[in-house]
Structure formats: C-alpha cells, structure tokens
C-alpha cells in the first residue's frame, strides 16, 4: 500500500480551481520532488494536504496510509504522520519554542495513545536534534520564530520535523531565501531523517535544492496537474531548458 | 434643596440619598470627617450617577447599568466569616500576609497580624476614623479626585478598609494581601484603604475582590497610595467578583521622586466592572509599569480608565493593557497620559490590545495624550482583532488540537502583559487563572 495516494484531485481557493486532476503516488522510503513554475499549484497542493482552511478539495481523493485524508482535521493529520514544512514559517509571540515543541509532540502522542514524554526524556531528544542543526538553547527559549533569520526559521522547521518524526514530510519551497550554507544545514537535516519508513515530497521551483536532497522521482507540475514524471535527471533538464514547454503543453 | 431633588432621578440615586441620610450619623469619624462625607455626598447629589454623556464614563453608563442601590452591608456574622476562610485561592502558592475584609468590614480573626516586620503597621480604617488618628485624616482624600462621583460616594459612605504604614527604609518581604470578600447577602460595601510607604521602602501589595456568583452585590472600593522617594512598591489588584456583582474601584497614587512603582489589574469577574486609576508622578526619575489583563465572557462589562499625570520631569511610564473578550462581553479602555509643562524628558508609552473571541464581543479603546512639555517621548498604540487563523493553523499542523491551539495563543497574548509582574509566584498564579478561565470557557 502506498503511503500517499492522490487520485484525480481537484481543489482551489475561493471557488477558483487550482489543482485540476492531480495524481500522485508516494511510497514509504521515497523522496519525490515536485517542480513547476509559479502559479502551477505547488503551494496549494501543500496546503490541501495539511488541511489549511480555505483550500478545499472539490473532487478526487487522497488516501494517507490507507485512510481518507479529508476526514481528518489538520491536527489529526499531523498525529497520523503528516508534516508540512512551511515556506514562510510563522512567528508566534509569547510562545517559547520549547513549549511549542513539547505541546505539539505530546498532543500527537496523546492522540496516538502514547504516554506523554517526561521532561528529561523530551529534553534529551530536543538537545540531540537541536545540536545537529546548530540550534542553541537561547533560540529554544525564545518565542517561536520571533526575531529569527530566514535560515533560522527553516532550521526550526527541520527541528520540528526531527522531533515529531512524521511518516510523510512535505517541504514547501524550503530552499527559498536561503544562502548556500543555510541550505546545506537544512538539507543535511532532512537527509538524516531519510528512512525506509518515511517519505518526502520536496516542492521547489529550482533544481538547486535537489543537489543536496537527491530525489528518487521528479514530477513536473503545471496548471494543476502532473504533466511529466522522471528520475533525478529530469530536474537537471528543467534547470537547463526552463518550464516553457510544459506551460504550453498544459495550455494545449 | 430643590436643586438636589431635581437632579436625583433614578431609583438607585434616590436609594443612595436615603441610605446616606440614614447612616451618616452612624458612620465612623468625628465632625471633620462627617463634614468631609457631607461635602463628598454633595458632589454626588449635584451630578447624580455618571452617564454616557459624561466623557470619562462614556462607555460605562452607570446610571443605566446600576438599576438599584443595595442597602449597606451589615457586619458579617460567624457563618459568613467561616465561609470567607476559603477566599484568596486565586493567589495560588503565594505566601502573603492576609488581611481579610468580609462585606467591607475588617475581620482580625481571619487576618494574619502576628510577627509584623519592623516598620510595618496595620490597622483598620474604621478604628482610625473613630479614634481620629491625625496621620490617617491627614492623608485621606488628599489624592483621590474629589470630583469623581465614584470616589465621592466612597468618601461619603466609607465604612472600613486597611490602613497600612511602612516606616522609612523598611523592606516588607511578605506580600500584603488585602482580601475583600462579599457574602451571599446582596448588599453594598464602601471600603477605603490607605497605604503610606515612606521613603526607601519596599513592599508588595495585593488586593483581591471576590464574592458569590449568585448575588448581585455592589462594591465600591478605593485605595489611596503614597509612594515615598526611592520606594519600590508593587501593587496587584485581582477583580474576581461573582458573576452578578457590580464593582467600582479606584486606585489613586502619589509617587515621589526616584520611586519604582508597578500596578497590575487582573479582571475576570463581575457583571459590571469599572476600574479607575489616577496616578500622579510628583517627583522626578520614577520608573513605573502600569499593566492589566482582562478576560470576559457572557455579557460582562469591564471598563479600565486610567489617568497618568506626569507632573515631575524625567519619569518613565509603560502602560500595557490586554483584554480577551468572548460572548457578548464589552471591554473598555480609556487611557489618558498628561505631561505637564515641567515634565520634560518624560518617557511614556501606552499599548492596548483586545482579542475578540466572538463576533458579538465589543472592545472600545480611547487613548489620549495631552502634552504641555516639548522634550518628551510619548506614544500609544492599540489593536483589536480576532485570533490569527494562520497562527492557529500553524499550531494545528504540528498536531495541536484547535481548542488547545487557541488556548496557547490566548495565554501567549496575555502572557506578554503578565510577565511584567516581578513576583514569579504571582505571575504563575495569574497564568493558572488564565488557564482555568480558558478551561471553563469550553
């Protein structure tokens, strides 16, 4: 059984259809890249999977681990193993990063019927994950993402991912706004999390990120549909020739 | 006499006049106090209860909100006192010296008067008035604005309250807790307290007001506070009245040079609440934090009205007020900062924020700056809005259920104000109260 099965998905915002019959199958252990020009529906796909208000599916279905994704609230999806790394991580004044992480982890554990983690056990896991990403204690005490640089915010997303241990991580333009050093730290963080049980959907406009997070499968998204699927070499092809032919193809 | 009769119109106004006529000769105090009461009552008789056409009471039309005036509370009986023992729970683990007032009367049996720290003296206002204590009479009514009707009624009808004196340089380690408890009887209390902190003193003063949820009792409480030079005084007021109560309270403070002064008001209770503060910065180089958090639901109405008067130069004041309004609640904030001509180098910044949890909740905000000096830094900001859906989604996307995500965001919102309280135990107690409020909301 595939981990994620998207069948003929139509979805949009405020009555405007953006995804127009998208099909995608992701198996555990795989890394899929979804590339496409601006406006092709990449972020919409990410939000529809995570369950953001206003991003409503109109037809088609999505099975996550065999279950209907649209029957679940965003927090239930997260507890079932769905994780969205935000393109623009939000700042939450007044909520310490460490509180946020512990609340999230324990909420997921509770929903799955696991016991809450003790403070020392949580601290141990947090310290291990944070040090690998170069996140210091001071950052963990500060309010979530408040005053963080772009790179720090993205590292914080990867830290959350490392702690929450999702089955499927959707990375929405994780490379945007990062310099090469920050990009490497983030990519290393993601690569450490690759495993046979876990899958990734890496959404990106540019091929650059895929030098560091090497995908098994590359899809081209255009006008709300997957128009081409290939291996990692497809990304290089797109880098060389641009999206021109796919945009025309989709129109025709 | 005729003029008075034509201005006293409502049932509540008539009842107050009757009450005053009945009790004026029984209330404590000598002739001078009696004259002070009469003059104060005259202020009320001329103006009547404040209504919406009085600018300072624009959003809290007491004439309309106060349908009747309750009779003055009688002295508490043994059973009432026994029930009052459980009061003050909202302070959590804070180890404070408790002074209990039941239905406005000081109850020594329920108060901790043992082993007073050096330099600390505690008494009851009723005793001080009866004895004609010159030090008390010399301070009483000196800073509370006599023209304010709530203050005037308090002065006219004050029965009891705390009188606390802290002598030169004394540090009072244990917080002093003025614990005001109303009993089941729907009565009115007029409590007046006086705190005189001499130069160089250090103390924390907690005022809590609570009562039963099924009694429409009325409280008019006033505190006059003198903060001496270089003193460091923290004041926290917890308004946790019962759901049907009418609560009007006043803090009037005169703050001398180089003092540190913090006041925080935490409001969750009462059907109608008016919390007013009149703060005078009389000496230079004072640093003050004036903050508050209000949580309302149902049809509660709470009004915070603040007048900060920068008279002396180079004082710094920070005003931060936050409110969370659900149901059909109505939150009001009126904040006026006046910078007098001589108050150069004043640094005053005021911020008010309202979080509306329902479409029928209402927040009114009236910040005013009145500046007569030319070398000052003053500013104010205000926001009102709903919970941020984007933030809520971010939390939910990490596995936090909707209700818990909302609670976390509300706690964070209020936490920014509450963290201004220096006492860690009290900060925790108030955050616990916020959590309890959020839990009860569901």
Any chance you could write out the topology, listing elements then pairs?
The complex is a heterodimer of chains A (252) and B (442).
Chain A: E1 4-13, E2 16-26, E3 31-35, H1 42-50, E4 55-64, E5 67-68, H2 74-79, E6 82-85, E7 92-96, H3 97-111, H4 119-132, H5 137-141, E8 143-144, H6 150-164, E9 168-172, H7 180-193, E10 199-204, E11 217-222, E12 225-230, H8 233-241, H9 244-251
Chain B: H1 2-7, H2 11-23, H3 31-47, H4 62-65, H5 78-83, E1 97-102, E2 105-106, E3 120-124, H6 125-131, H7 134-139, H8 149-157, E4 162-166, E5 176-181, E6 188-197, E7 202-210, E8 218-227, E9 232-240, E10 246-255, E11 260-267, E12 272-281, E13 287-296, E14 301-310, E15 316-325, E16 330-339, E17 347-356, E18 362-371, E19 377-385, H9 389-396, H10 402-418, H11 424-441
Parallel strand pairs in B: 1-5, 4-6, 5-7, 6-8, 7-9, 8-10, 9-11, 10-12, 11-13, 12-14, 13-15, 14-16, 15-17, 16-18, 17-19
Antiparallel strand pairs in B: 1-2, 3-4
Helix pairs in contact in B: 3-8, 9-10, 10-11
Widest β-sheet, arrangement of strands of chain B: 2-1-5-7-9-11-13-15-17-19
Q: How many whole angstroms does the radius of gyration of chain A measure?
A: 18 Å
Count of DSSP-assigned helices of chain A: 9
Strand content of chain A: 25-35%
Largest sheet of chain B: 10 strands, mixed
Radius of gyration of chain B, in Å, reads 21 Å
Question: What is the average per-residue confidence, as pLDDT of chain A, rounded to a whole number?
Answer: 93
CATH superfamily of chain A: P-loop containing nucleotide triphosphate hydrolases
Using CB atoms under 8 Å apart, which protein chain pair has the greatest interface? A-B, 30 and 22 residues
| Tally of DSSP helical segments of chain B | 11
Report the order of strands and helices of chain B.
HHHHHEEEHHHEEEEEEEEEEEEEEEEHHH
Can you tell me the CATH class of chain A? Alpha Beta
């Amino acid at each position: 059984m595939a981990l994620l099965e998207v069948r003929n998905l139509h979805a949009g915002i405020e009555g405007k259809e953006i995804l127009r019959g998208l099909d995608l199958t992701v198996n555990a252990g795989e890394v899929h890249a979804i590339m496409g020009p601006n406006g092709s529906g990449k972020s919409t796909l990410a939000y529809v999977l995570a369950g953001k208000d206003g991003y409503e599916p109109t037809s088609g279905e999505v099975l996550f681990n065999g279950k209907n994704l649209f029957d679940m609230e965003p927090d239930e999806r997260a507890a079932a193993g769905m994780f969205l790394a935000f393109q623009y991580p939000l700042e939450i004044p007044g909520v310490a990063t460490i509180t946020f992480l512990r609340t999230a982890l324990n909420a997921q554990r509770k929903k799955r019927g696991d016991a809450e983690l003790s403070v020392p056990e949580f601290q141990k896991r947090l310290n291990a994950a944070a040090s690998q990403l170069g996140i210091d204690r001071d950052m963990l005490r500060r309010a979530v993402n408040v005053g963080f640089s772009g790179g720090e915010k993205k590292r914080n997303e990867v830290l959350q991912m490392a702690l929450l241990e999702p089955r499927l991580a959707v990375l929405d333009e994780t490379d945007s706004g990062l310099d090469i050093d920050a990009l490497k730290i983030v990519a290393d963080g993601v690569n450490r999390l690759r495993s046979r049980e876990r899958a990734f959907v890496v959404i990106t406009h540019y091929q650059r990120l895929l030098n560091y997070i090497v995908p098994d499968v590359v899809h081209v998204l255009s006008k709300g549909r997957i128009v081409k699927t290939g291996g990692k070499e497809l990304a290089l092809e797109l880098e060389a020739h641009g999206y021109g032919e796919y945009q025309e193809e989709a129109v025709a | 006499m005729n003029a008075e009769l034509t201005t006293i119109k409502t049932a509540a106004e008539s009842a107050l006049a009757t009450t005053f006529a009945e009790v004026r000769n029984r209330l404590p105090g000598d002739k001078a106090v009696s004259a002070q009461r009469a003059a104060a009552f005259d202020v009320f008789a001329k103006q009547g209860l404040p209504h919406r056409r009085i600018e300072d009471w624009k959003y809290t039309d007491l004439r309309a909100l106060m349908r009747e005036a309750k009779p003055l509370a009688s002295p508490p009986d043994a059973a009432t006192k026994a029930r009052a023992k459980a009061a003050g729970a909202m302070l959590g683990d804070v180890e404070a010296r408790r002074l209990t007032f039941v239905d406005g009367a000081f109850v020594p049996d329920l108060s901790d008067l043992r082993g007073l720290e050096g330099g600390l003296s505690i008494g009851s206002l009723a005793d001080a008035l009866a004895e004609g204590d010159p030090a008390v009479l010399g301070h009483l009514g000196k800073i509370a604005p006599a023209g304010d009707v709530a203050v005037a009624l308090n002065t006219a009808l004050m029965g009891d309250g705390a009188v606390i004196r802290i002598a030169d340089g004394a540090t009072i380690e244990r917080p002093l807790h003025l614990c005001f408890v109303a009993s089941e009887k729907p009565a009115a209390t007029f409590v007046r307290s006086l705190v005189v902190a001499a130069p160089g003193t250090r103390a924390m003063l907690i005022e809590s007001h609570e009562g039963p949820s099924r009694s429409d009792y009325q409280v008019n409480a006033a505190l006059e506070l003198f903060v001496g030079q270089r003193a460091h005084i923290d004041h926290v007021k917890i308004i946790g009245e019962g759901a049907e109560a009418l609560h009007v309270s006043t803090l009037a403070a005169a703050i001398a040079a180089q003092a540190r002064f913090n006041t925080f008001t935490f409001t969750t209770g009462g059907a109608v609440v008016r919390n007013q503060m009149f703060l005078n910065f009389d000496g230079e180089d004072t640093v003050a934090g004036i903050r508050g958090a209000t949580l309302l639901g149902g049809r509660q109405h709470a009004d915070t009205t603040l007048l900060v008067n920068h008279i002396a130069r180079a004082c710094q004041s920070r005003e931060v007020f936050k409110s969370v309004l659900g149901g059909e609640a109505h939150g009001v904030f009126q904040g006026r900062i006046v910078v007098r001509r001589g108050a150069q180098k004043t640094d005053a910044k005021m911020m008010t924020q309202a979080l509306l949890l329902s479409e029928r909740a209402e927040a009114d905000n009236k910040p005013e700056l009145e500046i007569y000096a030319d070398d000052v830094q003053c500013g104010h900001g205000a926001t009102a809005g709903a919970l941020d859906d984007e933030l809520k989604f971010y939390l939910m996307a990490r596995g936090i259920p909707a209700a818990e995500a909302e609670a976390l965001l509300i706690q964070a919102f209020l936490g920014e104000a509450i963290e201004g309280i220096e006492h860690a135990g009290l900060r925790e107690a108030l955050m616990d109260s916020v959590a309890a409020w959020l839990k009860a909301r569901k």
